[in-house]
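--- STAGE predict ---
source: upstream dedup step, 1 unique chain passed
mode: sequence only
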Amino acid sequence: MADEKFVKMTTEPVEKLIMKLAIPTIISMLVTTFYNMADTYFVGKIGMGEVGAVQAVMQTRAQAAVGVVMSLMAVIQAFGFFFGHGSGNFVSRALGKHDVKSAERIASSGFWYAVITGGVLLVLGQIFAEPLAVLLGANKDFLDYTVQYMRIILIGAPITMASLVLNNQIRFQGNATYAMLGISAGAVLNVGLDALFILKWDMEVIGAALATVIGQIVSLILLLIGTERSDCIKIRLKNVRFNKSTVGEICRGGLPSLGRQGLNSVSTACLNNMAGIYGALAYPDIASAATSAVAAMTVVSRIMMFAASTLIGFGQGFQPVCGFNYGAGLYKRVTKSFWFCVKVAVVFIFVVAVPAYILSGDIVAIFRDNDPIALEIGTSAMRWQIITFPVMSWVVMGNMMLQTMGRVVSATVLSVSRNGLSFIPAVLILPLIFGLDGVLLAQPVADIIALIMAVPITVKVLKELSSGDKNENSAQNS
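--- STAGE serialize ---
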């Protein structure tokens, strides 16, 4: 089966391969981000038995709490992607070289490293839950909601990390359909449980958190079944190695993801803090303005994450094609795949961006229709972010290519360029000049800076690959 997969990944037209692998990964990403949006939507419906003003306050506080815990969830995902991409990238290159034994070692090690790391984060998070919530941007107005939601999300940390590792390993081996089914089933269950726990049983943010954890448990079980029933590398405890070589290989492929997702956590915390500060300053006569501003940015972040998930899912269809062919020395197929992905992504984003810009107010109102301040702030923020959304196509595809190739330094620089090197300074500095508008401008400014950084790095690597395939170069040099 390994030889058959190698032949398919290195001989079939790259356009056909990418589309075949991208469709299930896009569906998986859309469903995953949809259930993240579902938490935001359903907690915006709590307190249905309360009078209008009280209900609106409860809903805004709940959505603000979910937004603050997004930073913690980003940390959990950061380690999940670190071990998942770190092991998955290596596995795809190893299979491209027919090195199954090394692939088994890294796959099993990456999985159990994630479980152990998740357990450590669970314990530390429970001990320091309240100060951590404050650090991430919660104020006394919605601190209780934040801590309640956070404690349950932390219980699922080892499960979430393990699920992300398996999902990525399966995907990097060219079995995107199994990865999609595992993640999507848990996500669909999460949405159903959100409705049951929040709307019917009135469990508020606790219900949303429980739904998320239960969904992750189901996903992990299905993904484990998928690895056993498919031709994927099996997770075996006997293959786990705690040595410098194994850790080094995982770090090589996973550091860009850890940097990207880790800084995403920091940037989200900075955004929540600045939105709260400058939201209060922009509306000094309204006591809940700070909470409304945080809730607005939470809603917009979820919406834009949903839009970006299609682009990321498409890029994930490109990664196994890139990994197998780079490992086999077929560099022309790697460059051809990259350009195909960039062209398709740019066209798609423009098609989606235009109606989204026009309907941005209506889209935000789905989540926050009874809070005029949150609606106003959210609509403006969404429109600014849509303007620069197309530049993500180059940044995302370039980062995925470099990471899959094992170019750890270049990939890490690209991965942290948007949410770290660009966004964090922007969200801290621009509000000093433009007030609340500076908070809204931070993301589009960061997108432009990230593109300026990404182009020369990616072009340099593309020029190196264009020199020809490995086998051709060997023949010419002999």
